[in-house]
Amino acid sequence: MRVVRALSAALLTLGVAAGPAAADASPSPSPDGTSAPTQAGTSFRTATEIEQGQRATASGSTGDYLYWSFPADIGQRPTVRATVKLPETHASQTWQIDVYDGLRRRQACQYGAQTRTAGADTSSVELACVLRTVRAWSEPWANDPLPGTYYVRLTATGVATADLGLPVGSEIQVDSKDIGGSAAVDGSLAEPLVPGIASKPEEEREDTAVLAGLEPEDGWTSGWWSDRWVWTAVGGILAALAGVGGYALTRGTGRPSRVPPGA
Pairing between strand 109-111 and 148-157? Predict the structure, then answer.
């Protein structure tokens, strides 16, 4: 009996010790409690959808194109971060992330290390791209970020022939800062730039799947409301109070008593 109890205690101890390790190895959960994606697409059409705040992972080979997509709404300034885990032995490699909007127009990064070169003794490389603020509306000829689906492409450039096909691991996460009314503009799009959203009449869209299924937690913003309305109202009230106060200070006390009415 003592032997059985000792074995049971040992097994229980091993189970408790192994529990946290197994939990740490699992993919990070998304905001709604589901597991984050563990693979990436190989083209725009097969891009893996991720939510903002998720840390998605994927395995691939040096020379592959890895694609993810995420939704971005009006007033958001998305930041894309990627980490590439390189094999133990490799030559110098240059890795790059590119971000495209729903029209597949490449979006410039405001700042961040969009391209980095990893030396032969480097085990990982970190990339970042901070996009411009998403606008509610833009001129047709402009390349401004608009609400809708955005695509992230991760790849290596200038790879030595001997390194092609070597296994690599990648992690990617997208977060946004809400800029608010300082970036608000007049006008809005009829629909966000989501592939397939306009393929069916509006009355049939609820029952019809689109090519990109993710959207912001609170739905797509209509574009007419922003905190700029609040500041405009506050400014109007302050201007009215300043006018009343100025009038009270400058109107004086009226006609002096020593001056006759007809003067």
Answer: unpaired
Cβ-based burial of 182 (10 A; exposed 0-12, middle 13-18, buried ≥19): exposed
Cα(47)–Cα(49) distance, rounded to whole angstroms? Answer: 6
Give dist(CA 83, CA 201) in Å, integer: 41
What are the distances in angstroms from CA 114 to CA 83, 107, 109, 129?
11, 12, 7, 5
Neighbours of 66 (CB within 10 A): 24
Cα–Cα distance, 91 to 163 (Å, whole number): 7
* pTM higher than the cut 0.85: no
The residue among 22, 73, 27, 50 whose CA lies nearest residue 194 is 73
The separation between the first and the last C-alpha atoms of the chain, rounded to the nearest angstrom, is 121
Q: For 162-215, how does the pLDDT look when each residue is reduced to its tens digit (9 = 90+)?
A: 999 999 999 999 999 888 665 566 666 777 788 876 555 555 545 444 455 666
Find out whether 201 and 208 touch, Cβ atoms under 8 Å. Answer: no
Characterise 173 by phi-psi region: left (phi > 0), alpha (psi -120 to 50), beta (else): beta
